[in-house]
Each structure stands twice: as structure tokens, then as C-alpha cells.
């Protein structure tokens, strides 16, 4: 719109100059008009440059949020895999402990060989380490979830909605998986505890032996 007005103004000045030149008169309005045109053109260049800078900054911000989302997603994935692996090892150790206690209950204190109790002590030492590692990993997951939530919010504010939605789904998946692992671990731990209580009630002579193994387990965990 502005360019058309400037063009019409120049055409008017040109016609005036031609008319006056026919009468023997000089006129310098054309250079003035060209100067006005040049100034208007420079203003448009500055406006275009400012718009380009704004678009470039927005692109860089979106690109940075994408990098943050990818890093947070990777941290969630690695921590989740570690929790799953540690939980499986914990449940495997719990199953072995349950098996050993059941055998001791069947054989009785006198019929249980000494190496059987040694195996039980070793299994409980492994259980103590696995429980400690799992608690540490779960605390890592709490921080990873907070970091991922911040990355999702920043991505949404910058207009990177796709990345924000993707990491939100990943957070929900990680939470569901962690809760499932926690429930499975809790159920098996409860089963092991109930078995030991039943063994003590059924065979009181095993109570002292099981307590000694538990004390050894705690002592090994501290060292």
C-alpha cells in the first residue's frame, strides 16, 4: 500500500517536471522524491531484519527445548530400565530366600545342613544391597520426573507442543511402570515375611536361627 502511494507521488512529480521543463524552468523535485523513496525502502529493510531476528530467536528457543526434552527423556528411560532390572533381581533374591526358608522349615533345625544357613545369610546380604540400590534409583526417578516436567512446560510455552506432549506421555509411562514394579516387590516381600513368621510359629526352634541370620545380614550390610 505504501509502495503504491510512493509510486503515484513520483509519477505526479515527474509529470510536473516535464511540464515545467517545456517552459524553460528547472525543477529538483525528482531527486527529493527519490530520497523519500530510498528512506522508505530503508525503513522496510530494518523492519524485515527485525522480523527475521525474532523468527531466528524463536527457532533457536524451540530447538533448545527439543534438546532438553530429548535429554530428559533419555534420563527417564535409563533410570526406568535400572529400576526394572534391580527390581527383577530383588524379586529373584526374594524367591530364593523363600525357597531356603521353606526347606529349613521342612527339614527342621537338626536336619538343615550348615551350608544351607550360609546360603540364607548370603541371600539376605544380597537383598540388603538390592533394596538400598532400589531406594537410590527411585529417588533418582523423582528428580528425573521433576526435570522432565520442567522441560515439558518450557516446550509448551515456546510453542513446541509436540515435544511437550511426547515427554508428558513418557512421564506417565514411567510412573505407571515404577508403580507396577513397587507393587510386585511389595507383594513378594510380604510373602517372604509371612513365611518367616509362619516358620517361627510352627517351629519355634528355628526362631533363634532365623534371628541370628537376620542379625548377620544387618551386620554385613553395615560393613
From TrEMBL:
Subcellular location: Mitochondrion
One cellular component term from this protein's GO annotations in UniProt: mitochondrion
Keywords on record: Apoptosis, Mitochondrion, Transit peptide
InterPro entries tied to this protein: Smac/DIABLO-like_sf, Smac_DIABLO
GO process terms (BP): intrinsic apoptotic signaling pathway in response to oxidative stress; neuron apoptotic process
Domain of life: Eukaryota
Descriptive protein name: Direct IAP-binding protein with low pI
Organism expressing this protein natively: Bombyx mandarina (Wild silk moth)
